[in-house]
Structures are given as structure tokens and as C-alpha cells.
Amino acid sequence: MTEMKTGKVFLVGAGPGDPRLLTLRGKEVLTAADLVLYDGLANPLLLRLADCPCERTARTQVGGGRIVLQQEINERLIREAHSGKNVVRLKGGDPYIFGRGSEEAAALEAAGVPFEVIPGITAATAAGEYAGFSFTHRDIASAVAFVTGHEDPSREAPRLDYRALASFPGTLVFYMGLGRVQDICTQLICEGKPGTTSAAVVCQASLPQQRVVISTLAELPAAVAASDLRPPSLIVVGECVDLRHACSWFEQGPLFGQTIGITRPDHQSDDIAAKIVTLSGQPVIMPMIEIRAIHETQAATADEVVARLENYQWLVFTSVNGVAAFFDRLWQTGRDVRQIGHLQVAAVGSSTAAALENRGLRADIVPDSFRAEALAESLSPHVKDQRVLWARASRGRDVLSRTLADAGATVDEVIVYRNDDVEPFDAQVVDLVRSGSLDWVGLSSPSIARQFAKLLSTHQISPQSLSTKIATISPVTSGAVTEAGLVVAVEATTYTWDGIIDAIAGSTTAR
Ligand code: SAH
Fold this sequence. Notes:
- The chain has 4 domains: about 110 residues, 3-Layer(aba) Sandwich (Cobalt-precorrin-4 Transmethylase, domain 1); about 130 residues, Methyltransferase, Cobalt-precorrin-4 Transmethylase, Domain 2; about 120 residues, Rossmann fold (3-Layer(aba) Sandwich), CATH 3.40.50; about 110 residues, Rossmann fold (3-Layer(aba) Sandwich).
- Helices cover about 30% and strands about 20% of the residues.
- It contains 17 helices and 22 strands.
């Protein structure tokens, strides 16, 4: 019997929040992992890089005291590695900075499990750059200290020396300190730090919900109490706080503070999520529909059509998914792109045309306005007495077929993929909508619009109480939204998802 090879554990710093701040090495090992165990501070968007089960590790509250199940996590890492898995332990910020990563490393070492530790950007450095604090600006600070704020400064034998901290020649950054902000400030003042020293709290650094409260050491606790701050947060004490406006940039992003729902199929959401993040917004991937393979009988029909493409003069695509599914059938039946050399090709819009281009095909017709009516209009003069094949979804509008038939074409429709509603609705998404935490939702087809309306009605969220603003891709989708009793806030001028995001960004900057 061969012995199972032990896997490796990667202790990976997930960075402070902004998913783009993961290291290249971190991305590499996440992509190849067999199991990911992540903590509550790691941005869930990073899990999309992994193609394996991902589990969140829990901290539990027992009898008022906080029990971190570190021992269990250590044992789990060892067990999974011994069973041959490569495990990524994904931890917010940097694994060793107030992160207990070193305890995990020591346990792995003791158990003889190979491991690698990949640094991450710690919360303090992210707060520095994203909120505009230069902790060691040469004119004001020659040192910076990262301090735990979790330790009770009034306890009998504190390990932290507040006298030394009060006279520290530089910037102080407290982690885990928001709950003790009063104690921390009082203790520093008692030990001689002037109450007029500038101080700040940064919450959710590097995330679109980032908030900064600026004050003085004496007044910071009251300023914090007056603000509705959400963890995680850092306390920054020192003169660098005064220079914030000279070096802040992140909060200038057009979508800063905006949480935006992406409702298109999951596998098509990553590019749009990345665009939202680039504009300082928070994407929520909440697919309302999904693309599935067609049933066996539909596949048999599609394969028959694909076998007699010589019967047609035109091939029409109205979605990226249609292009992918059509060429998949061609390939699966032992054929390839040479089969369509004699055909003229039409695409409804730029994304569909780009999908064709990726396969080395140039669309003969792409209408200026990306919708079925415009496509039908552009095609009509060319299709009299011609046979047109339309590779389409299992549902959708049929305006294209009707118009082309009126123009004298024989139109065959072949269903190459299914477009199904996603149900049941994700409980977290429902909560976001109900609580008013979703600022925007993008709706990119009538079926998606109807499904979003169904989410509201299924969960008794009345259109009047809905605070989420709706951005639509086109007038046709806007029509479906209005028909469902909802209000359209903005409509894209270019009928693509990029167009939706641009419309949202335009309306938030216009405020
Ligand atoms: N290993 C992490 C720290 C874990 S301790 C790191 O290197 O960043 C958890 C504390 O980190 C929180 O209580 C908070 O003080 C801080 N923190 C983590 N992410 C943060 C963020 N995005 N904004 C502000 N503080 C953050």
C-alpha cells in the first residue's frame, strides 16, 4: 500500500479588505487549493479565486468570555494536510500581525506538516494609504507602533506600558481598540500625552464603507460615541492625522460607499465586480438567473441543426452565452469553426461581437444600439429569401424572428442554452435588500427584472419600502421593471453591464 502524501498548508494574508490587495503568491495558492479555511475579516470575493470548498472558521461566545477555537483550527489544518490536501488558511490582513498565524505555524511545525506563510497587507498600512495617514512622515514621526487595544489597560498586571506609549516618539496605531477607546485615551492622557494630540478612528479601511472620524485624544471617545461606526476599526494617534487631506484618494472614487448588486449569471459577474471595486464601490454578486446546459432532447435537436449548417446563409447571436453554447455544440459533435465559413454572422451588441472575435470571427452586422429591435432592423434589408439561424436561449423575446420573417427570411431558432431563474433566493441577499444596505441593483434583462420583483414579493418587501435604487440596461428592461410596479432610477445609455455601472457612477457623482 502506498502511503498518502501529506499536503501543504499555506497561511495566507488576505489583506485588509479591498480584494485587489492580495499578493500574487496568495492568488496562486488560492487558485490551486483543495480546501480554504478563512476568517471573518477575509473578503469573501477572494473565495471566487478558489475552485474548492471554502469554510469560514468561527469564534464562539461561551459564558461571556470569548473562546477562540484556535486549538481546533490547528488540529483541522493538520488533519486535512495529513489526508493529502493542500490547504489555504486565509486570514485578514497579515497572518502574523495580531493574527495568531504564528501559533498555527508552530502547531504545523510540531506535527511535521509542511507549510508556507504568505504576508498580507495589514490593516494599519491599508488605513494609512486608503484614508490618507502617513504614519512616518519625516517631518512629524520617526517611528510607528502597532499596539493591541484589546488588553484592558486597568487590569492588574498589564503587559502594555502606557507610560512608554504616551512618550513614544511617533504614531500609535491601536488594533482591536474601538470598544476600549475611552480607556485607551484616558490612560494615554494620564501618562502625559497631551489631550490636544490629534487622533482618529478608521473603520473598514480600504472598503467602500470606510469611515474616518477625526478628533483629539481628549475628545475622540465622544466623537466615536456620536458616530455610528462599524467594526473593524483602528485608532490612530499622532500628528499624521492632520495631514490626511493631503494624501487621501480612495474616498474620491465615484462609487465610494455604494453597494451594488450584480444580478447577471454568476459566471459572468467577476469583470463587473472588478469594475465596481476599481471605482471604490462594493459589489454584491446576487445572480437572479443562471445559464444551464439544455436538456437531452433539446441537445439532440441542436446537434441536428449544427449538422446541416450548409442550409443557412445567416447565423445570428443575441448573447455571449449563445455564442459559447453554439460553439460548444459544434465542438462536441466533432466539428469546428470551419463549419460556418460560408455564413454571414450577426451579433446584437459589442459583448456578443467580442465573444465571436475571441473565436476568430468578425461579425458582419452589429447594430449601433444593442437590442433586438435594432438588430432586426439592421438585418432586414439583407435577409429576403434567405435562411437565418438564430442560436438562442430557452426563453426571451421573439421580436427578432417576427421582424425577419416579415422581411422575407425563413428563420429557424435553435435553443443552445437554458436561462433559468435562481431560486430559492440567497438569505443574505434578501437581508441586504430588506435592511436597506443594498444601494443599487443592476437589472440587465426583462427576466432578471421579473425575478428581482419576485424576490421582493416572496419576501414581503413592498416596492414603497424599497430603498435600493434600480439601474437598468435598456428601455426594454425598464419597461419590465415598471410593469412589475417598481421605479427605474437610471437607465444605461450603452446597453451593456459597463453601461449600467457608468449610469450609476454618473448619477452618484451628479448628486
Ligand atoms: N491580522 C490582521 C489583524 C487581525 S486583528 C491584520 O494584519 O490586519 C483584528 C483587528 O484588525 C480589528 O479589530 C481591527 O482593529 C483591525 N482591522 C482589520 N481589518 C481592518 C480594516 N479593514 N479596517 C480597520 N481595521 C481593521
